[in-house]
Amino acid sequence: MAQAALEDLELELLLEALHRRHGFDFRGYALASLRRRVWRRVELDGLGTITALTDRILHDDDTLARLMRDLSINVTEMFRDPGFHRALRELAVPLLRTYPFVRIWNAGCSTGEEAYSVAIALDEAGLLERSRIYATDMNEGALAQARTGAFPLERMQSYTENYQRAGGTRSFSEYYVARTGSAVFDERLARNIVFAQHNLATDRSFNEFHLIICRNVMIYFGRELQRHVHQLFLDSLVPLGLLGLGRKETIQPPDLAARYEPLEPTEKLFRRRR
Question: Across the strands, what pairs with 195?
């Protein structure tokens, strides 16, 4: 067997082992990105092959935890892409205001920066007390960090700039206190956020939502997994519910895209048709 074909087989067996032994399903992810991350872990752990890594993750929880950190994409920041968050304030909030209670799903929330950003926008619109934000991720380590509500203090300058460009109406420093190198955000914001583990590849819908935000997550998914997740989101949205994606993401395939109308196409904010 040629080396490339052998490596493909090894990677396939690793992903199958992760799914069957531990319940983590990466089988629909884009293989080029997975291969790079898997080989990085093979080399860092001093192993010679992907097969050796498979043996380790079957028997050693520490190796599994390291690999999961490698495979989970945790690149995020508060008010990332300020234009999107301004569109939420200007276009989504007036629609959300028409509901007696608002349910929002922040899928792939990573360490929680986006969930807190949405909570701040809702607070300034007077909607936070009648809203619930469900912030989910497959990575329990990232969720544990999110639950602390603490982020590196050194990032606050750039987060403040993002907040202002997103249409923030207060002084951003009102929302946090500085403690030993961290910015700890007001507990009042977290009261209406539920952080929970959820795997987009394997888990089902768990509620009906008025807004779903899943940004810069599906760019790492293969075509079939993207379709699966978009069907999941469609099934989870109320009629006329809103969907926010990352700038490089689209709704695929066309039959699912036809179920939406663009609310702000540049910022990838869509509204489900009835």
Answer: 135
Calpha distance 102→81 (Å, rounded): 23
CATH number for region 82-272: 3.40.50.150
Token pair, residue 138, equals 């497959």
Quick check: 262 and 84 in contact, CB under 8 A?
Answer: no
Burial (Cβ within 10 Å: 0-12, 13-18, ≥19) of residue 125: middle
Going from N- to C-terminal start, the domains of the chain cover 3-71, 82-272
Contacts 24+ apart (CB under 8 A), 91-97: 91/263, 91/264, 91/269, 92/211, 92/242, 92/244, 92/263, 92/269, 93/121, 93/122, 93/125, 93/127, 95/240, 95/242, 95/271, 96/127, 96/131, 96/210, 96/211, 96/242, 97/125, 97/127
Give the side-chain half-sphere CA count within 13 A for 3.
1
Which residue type is seen at 111? T
Dist. CA 122–CA 134, nearest whole Å: 14
Alpha-carbon gap, residue 87 to 243, rounded angstroms: 12
Q: What is the pLDDT of residues 187-244, one digit of tens each?
A: 999 999 999 999 998 899 999 999 999 999 888 888 888 999 999 999 999 999 999 9
What global pTM score does this model have? 0.85
Specify whether the CB–CB gap between 245 and 274 falls below 8 A. Answer: no
Strand 260-264 vs strand 182-185: parallel, antiparallel, or unpaired? unpaired
Token representation of residue 103: 């349910």
Residue position matching structure tokens 């203090």: 153
- Angle, vertex CA 238, rays to CA 233 and CA 239, nearest 5: 110
| 157: Cβ contacts below 8 Å, ≥ 6 apart | none
